[in-house]
Design brief:
Helix content: 25-40%
Structural class: alpha/beta
CATH class of the largest domain: Alpha Beta
CATH topology of the largest domain: TIM Barrel
Strand order of the largest sheet: 5-6-7-8-9-10-11-12
Distance between the termini: 11 Å
CATH superfamily of the largest domain: Metal-dependent hydrolases
CATH architecture of the largest domain: Alpha-Beta Barrel
Radius of gyration: 22 Å
Strand content: 15-25%
Number of domains: 2
């Protein structure tokens, strides 16, 4: 542990470190070359193009009891320490500090791997061909339903530990692989239990599985089953309901019925929208006031304007297209220029296995033509808005939880530029320090 505020220090343990908590002097983060707090945004998601962000050079942050007491130019922060306070010091080594990343779209709870399907994609096999050979989502449903709760929990904890070391401090997690009421409820119970036992804040979403299970006669019968049987069992334990409105899934009418039923039970809305076709999912999200429309790779003539007017966040998931070897990415520039707020997520799952929000930011800059400033906002503040978490996540401000990322780089612009490197030196969650650069 550290008790000399003039000594350059680093965290003394890996995940589950308590550095910065339980000390009356708190934690002083020093030697910050660039601090980018994003405190210029709010109360809603940021809209419109960005080319630069407010940054503070030669900065410091004072954390007490897991919350930000002060931040700004280092000399002013040092001068403003309470009389007699002797904080522990965390050296940022001339790096950058940004808010903790918010991964606002994941399928982190599942069992198994589909790594063997990736060579099939490379060889040209489509989703239908892979599914016909027992792969795809049906395989994950089978492997997840056969897994024990203990195995699922252990796998989720391991994934979250890796995500934390990549800077993620808040993550949304969808269910959906269990279909039946008792399975979906058990999945939500696992998410709640894991949320209480590890650092990353988790937001739970009941997700209606892609496609119609074979035992149902069609989408109408499946939708009725979800409304009558599954929603009553899961609604008290989730924050969102997410329905797929796309080619091969629910048409907008059935998706609307499910979401309206979910709304009557107190759930907010998200929609897997228009990943494979312009199926009207984004328009439905706007009509129903959904918090987000996710994927939106295919846009109708007026889709962008409709989303902009509705204040619905478009969650873009370029890693999914990368792993699917799909030639069509979401049109990030059109959405941004139309005034649609943009967020980014990993879409982590067995078909899109990244746990790195910086990697997603790099893809967004390269393939969606987003500026690094836009990508950072999309991975933090706007992503927090996309999970209704803007009151506690996504920016650095006095009184808010100390959810921070200390980068081994002099500017946030290096995040997408150095896409092949994990630049996260430390992740702070509620003031506790975690990192791979432990000395």
């Amino acid at each position: 542990m550290f008790n000399n505020p003039t000594t350059s220090i680093s965290a003394t343990s890996g995940p589950n470190s308590d550095l910065g908590n339980g000390d009356s002097g708190g934690l002083l983060i020093t030697n910050i070359a660039e601090l980018t707090p994003l405190d210029e945004f709010g109360p809603g998601p940021q809209k419109g193009a960005l080319r630069s962000l407010k940054s503070i050079r030669h900065a410091a942050i004072h954390v007490v009891d897991g919350r930000i007491r002060d931040f700004g130019p280092a000399e002013r922060v040092a001068a403003g320490l309470p009389k007699g306070a002797v904080p522990r010091v965390l050296d940022a080594y001339g790096g950058t500090v940004v808010p903790g990343f918010v991964d606002c779209h994941t399928h982190l709870l599942y069992s198994g791997s589909r790594a063997d399907e990736y060579p099939m994609r490379i060889a040209g096999a489509g989703y239908g061909e892979i599914s016909s050979k027992g792969g795809g989502v049906a395989r994950t449903i089978r492997e997840s339903t056969e897994a024990t709760s203990s195995d699922l929990k252990q796998a989720l904890v391991a994934r979250l530990a890796k995500a934390l070391l990549n800077g993620t401090t808040t993550a949304e997690i969808k269910t959906g692989y269990w279909v039946v009421p008792e399975g979906e409820r058990a999945a939500l119970d696992i998410i709640a239990e894991v949320s209480a036992s590890q650092p990353v804040d988790l937001v739970s979403t009941f997700h209606v599985a892609l496609g119609t299970p074979a035992r149902f006669g069609g989408g109408a019968e499946y939708a009725k089953y979800v409304i009558d049987q599954v929603l009553p069992a899961v609604a008290p334990y989730a924050r969102f309901c997410d329905v797929v409105c796309d080619l091969g899934a629910f048409a907008d009418g059935k998706a609307r019925q499910i979401l309206q039923a979910a709304g009557r039970r107190g759930l907010k809305f998200k929609i897997h929208a228009d990943e494979f076709s312009a199926a009207g999912g984004a328009e439905l999200a706007a009509e129903l006031g959904a918090v987000s429309a996710d994927h939106v790779c295919f846009l109708g003539k007026d889709t962008a304007q409709t989303l902009a007017q509705a204040q619905t966040v478009a969650v873009l998931l370029p890693a999914t297209r990368h792993y699917l070897l799909a030639p069509r990415f979401a049109d990030g520039r059109q959405l941004i220029e139309s005034g649609v707020p943009i967020a980014l997520g990993t879409d982590h799952g067995p078909g899109s296995p990244t746990l790195s929000m910086p990697f997603v930011m790099g893809l967004a800059c390269s393939w969606l033509r987003m500026d690094p400033a836009e990508a950072l906002v999309a991975a933090t503040w706007n992503a927090a808005c996309a999970v209704a978490g803007a009151s506690i996540a996504g920016k650095i401000a006095v009184g808010r939880p100390a959810d921070l990322v200390v980068l081994d780089a002099p500017t946030y612009r290096d995040l997408p530029y150095l896409i092949d490197q994990n630049l996260v030196r430390y992740t702070l969650k509620n003031g506790a320090v975690f990192g791979q650069h432990i000395t």
